[in-house]
Amino acid sequence: MIRKILEIVLSLILISVFILDGCGDSLEDPTPPSRPQWVEKSAPEDSIEHGIDADPIDDYIFLEWHPNSDDDISAYKIYRAENNASAKFSLLADVDAFSTFGGDTIYIDDSVELNKIYYYYLLAVDQAGNKSEPSDTIRYGLIQKTDLNYPLIAITEKRPRFEWHDFTSFSYQYIIRVEKLSPLEVIWIYRFNKTNYADTFQSMLFDNNNTASEHELTAGTSYRWRVDAIYLVDPSDRDISGSESQWGYFSIKP
After folding, report:
1. Sign (positive/negative) of CA torsion 127, 85, 233, 168?
2. Do 130 and 154 fall within a single domain?
3. Which residue of 1, 106, 112, 197 lies most exposed, with the fewest beta carbons within 10 A?
4. Span 176-182, mean pLDDT?
5. CB-based burial label for 138 (10 Å; 0-12, 13-18, 19+)
């Protein structure tokens, strides 16, 4: 009798294991995630910057992509190669799928060197470990930042001449940005060709092209400014090698 009971129990256990295994197979996800998409790079003179770019904080490359629409994404893998898209790509970083910024996912590559072009592509990984097809390959390279000189204090001129030093021979264009603080507002963006190649000293008069939202800066107001340098552009005239200076801060005396 006891033997019969044991046989029945063993049979029930085997049936349970079989059912659970079958359920497990049905719950497996063999479908890979959709291919990730980079955020399109903005033009150098756009007021809102997005996509791959230099970083004004330091010699970093900023990467930005759209989050996948799949609801089971766990991570993204970023791969990088140097100087040639045909070179060997190595895993640069695993990025948690919830590392978002303003709805998009970002990564700052802080392990780059100046005067090199870096190539990047992405893979999306879901919770089952499936990997997507690779994203498009994008590229960017850094050159030395410009060194802001004037203004960096409280000044009286309402149309100051912005001055900086450019210690690299690579740049051929600049973009100067002036923004009002509190609330933050873009006042002037001007893209222009470098004309003085004989000296590191460069300068530009405020609103030289008459496109600023204020022809004269306002007394008692604080501002910040930056100079981006361009070395290489793609066929759509977007920079693929350049730099962004750190922000300089100044105010107009009352």
Report:
1. positive
2. no
3. 1
4. 97
5. buried
Q: How far apart are CA 1 and CA 120, in angstroms?
A: 70
Domain that holds residue 233: 147-252
pTM for this prediction: 0.84
Query: Model confidence at 150, in pLDDT bands (50, 70, 90)?
Result: very high
Which three-class secondary structure state does DSSP give residue 37?
strand
pLDDT over 60 at 7, yes or no: no
Alpha carbons 115 and 113: distance in angstroms, whole number: 7
- For residues 149 and 161, is the Cβ–Cβ distance under 8 A? no
Tracing tokens 């021979």 back to the chain, one arrives at: 169
Closest CA to 148 of 226, 33, 92, 51: 226
Sheet hosting strand 161-165, strand order edge to edge? 147-150, 161-165, 201-205
Determine the length of the chain. 254
Domain match, 100 and 177 both: no
Q: Which residues contact 51 (CB under 8 A, 6 or more apart)?
A: 38, 39, 40, 41, 42, 64
Cis preceding linkage at 30, omega within 30: no
Cα separation, 47 vs 227, in Å, equals: 14
Q: Is residue 157 part of a domain?
A: yes
pLDDT, one tens digit per residue, over 134-143 is 999 999 999 9
Question: Does position 145 have pLDDT exceeding 50, yes or no?
Answer: yes
CB atoms inside a 10 Å sphere around CB 74: 17
Count of CB atoms within 10 A of residue 140's CB?
24
